[in-house]
């Protein structure tokens, strides 16, 4: 008589069942970047552009959706990965400016571009003052003679002029009036070498346009978010007394947020002196009150995206399962939740795992395991990872084999995995 095989409860099954009643997926927005060069034609940064779907031919830079998508991509992948270690020029509407979303990104990597339709009112001036106090670089986009944003000139580090709209004699006058070592002048829409040389001759020191390069498409995917978890998290951080245990638990339910948190605390802005070993450690690195502002803005961005997917649930289950079996193992260097959660992030982002974890301040053993090949020597973490993958796919031979190596019984493994799946399903 054949042995009864334990029921295979997986995040994929749950998500597949839910997808049968879910609305059609939204189109996936695309990003592109266009280089900005110095007078010696060296790239010093990239302006991030946006389009609604892969079917559109025209990229744009403005609008709340464009800014939110750009910020989210930079949050997920890191500015250095998206922009090859150079500056990211990020267009901001007034709403995005006033909400302070730029604070999600490191000031030494970002140029905040204020669009032509942003009024130079008291609120905008105060927002610029906050940005300057935090050492962000500010650019005035598409500046023209008698520009209504004149009151923002004292805060501008870069002024961008469209040389196809503003004749060269008027452009030269603007360069003469506003250009200085503290305020660089950038020529937009430079299409030919002749225009590049003429712009350089009248005093422009930065250049952008098809002469240098057409926009380059970015191949990165959003991490879908979980609306219910985000709402509960917003409620949790609105309480007069923060319960960091509750906040940590909610973040663990949300791989999209957990990954962004790891990316943020690993940035040069915070520069952790030692590896980040847990979600709670990452929260502690943000400081006592900083988590509220960061979580509120990041959660709001995530909620604008599509609902969670089977890969999202799988990532949550992996993290929780690894966390639950940790008490039975001789491992106290780092939280095994991060190993499980990150092990599926390459599939979520459709990027190599090396790119996904580049720049993250992970425990060396965790990083090595995520990057390891099948031919590498077996370790405790490799056995844990092999176990969770085998249980996820229902490979009971491997589950039994890896369980023996870790001294974990099959009933315990199955019970713990089902518990992890139920935990991930609670807020899905």
Note down, in words, how this protein is organized.
This protein is α/β, with parallel strands linked by helices and 428 residues long. It folds into 3 domains: 30-218, TIM Barrel, CATH 3.20.20; 227-303, no CATH class; 311-425, no CATH class. It has 20 helices and 9 strands. It has helices at 11-19, 64-77, 79-82, 94-99, 122-133, 168-178, 193-201, 227-236, 244-252, 255-265, 279-286, 290-303, 310-325, 336-342, 345-349, 353-357, 364-371, 380-393, 396-406, 410-425; strands spanning 30-38, 43-51, 87-92, 110-114, 137-140, 158-162, 184-188, 206-207, 216-218. Strands 1-2-3-4-5-6-7-8 form an 8-stranded mixed beta barrel, surrounded by 4 helices. Helix 8 (227-236) packs antiparallel against helix 12 (290-303), helix 13 (310-325) runs antiparallel to helix 14 and helix 13 (310-325) packs across helix 18. The radius of gyration is 25 Å and the shape is elongated. The two termini are 39 Å apart. Residues 1-28 have low confidence and may be disordered.
Secondary structure layout:
Elements: H1 11-19, E1 30-38, E2 43-51, H2 64-77, H3 79-82, E3 87-92, H4 94-99, E4 110-114, H5 122-133, E5 137-140, E6 158-162, H6 168-178, E7 184-188, H7 193-201, E8 206-207, E9 216-218, H8 227-236, H9 244-252, H10 255-265, H11 279-286, H12 290-303, H13 310-325, H14 336-342, H15 345-349, H16 353-357, H17 364-371, H18 380-393, H19 396-406, H20 410-425
